[in-house]
């Protein structure tokens, strides 16, 4: 990966142009993010399949299908790398939070949101994505070692 390549592809999904612009403004100074925007769940799903999306920030209520359904679609896709999902809503009821997490969201952001809180939650997502990338790299390395005839074995305890 070159230094010009963004490290995290973030997809923002919201049917409100005001909210999309607000999030763009909050994240625009972070050069390790590449931002994409979708106005609907179906557009977001298409973009998700076209790009290597690291983090999705999605509104709950959208015109074609909900953020909950988008989370379920993304979690059902086992062929892609792990994507961290943040669900945005004005719903502060505990059962709403539970429904969002059960649908596959990793985190929950209540509108109107604070920019510092959003950046902190994205930071959590980055750490989770980095861990998934590290685990994937270690699995590939182990697989290559096994294919080369050098099976990876945990070190054995010394025998006295």
Descriptive terms for the model:
alpha/beta, 160 residues, five-stranded parallel sheet, 5 helices, globular, 17% strand, single chain
How would you characterize this protein structure?
- The chain is 46% helix and 17% strand.
- With 160 residues, the protein is α/β, with parallel strands linked by helices.
- Strands 2-1-3-4-5 form a 5-stranded parallel β-sheet, with helices on both faces.
- β3 (55-59), α3 (67-76) and β4 (84-89) form a beta-alpha-beta unit.
- The radius of gyration is 19 Å and the shape is globular.
- Mean pLDDT is 87; it is low at 155-160.
What is the mean pLDDT? 87
**Which term fits the overall shape?**
globular
- Helical fraction equals 40-55%
> Approximately what portion of the residues adopt beta-strand conformation?
15-25%
What is the H/E order? EHEHEHEHEH
Count the strands?
5
Rg from alpha-carbon coordinates: 19 Å
Instruction: Please give the order of strands in the largest beta sheet.
Output: 2-1-3-4-5
Total number of helical segments?
5
In whole angstroms, the N-to-C terminal distance is: 46 Å
Please give a quick description of this structure.
It is built from five helices and five strands, in the order βαβαβαβαβα. It is an alpha/beta fold and 160 residues long.
């Amino acid at each position: 990966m070159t230094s010009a390549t963004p490290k995290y592809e973030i997809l923002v999904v919201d049917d409100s142009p005001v909210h999309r612009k607000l999030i763009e403004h909050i994240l625009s100074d972070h050069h390790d993010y590449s931002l994409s925007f979708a106005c609907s769940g179906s557009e977001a799903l298409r973009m998700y399949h076209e790009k290597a999306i690291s983090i999705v920030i999605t509104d709950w209520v959208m015109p074609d299908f909900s953020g909950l359904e988008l989370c379920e679609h993304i979690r059902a896709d086992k062929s892609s790398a792990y994507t961290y999902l943040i669900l945005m809503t004005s719903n502060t009821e505990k059962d709403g939070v539970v429904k969002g997490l059960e649908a596959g969201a990793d985190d929950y952001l209540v509108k109107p949101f604070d920019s510092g809180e959003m950046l902190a939650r994205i930071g959590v997502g980055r750490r989770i994505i980095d861990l998934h990338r590290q685990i994937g790299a270690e699995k590939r390395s182990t697989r290559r070692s096994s294919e080369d005839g050098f099976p990876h074995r945990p070190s054995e305890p010394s025998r006295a």
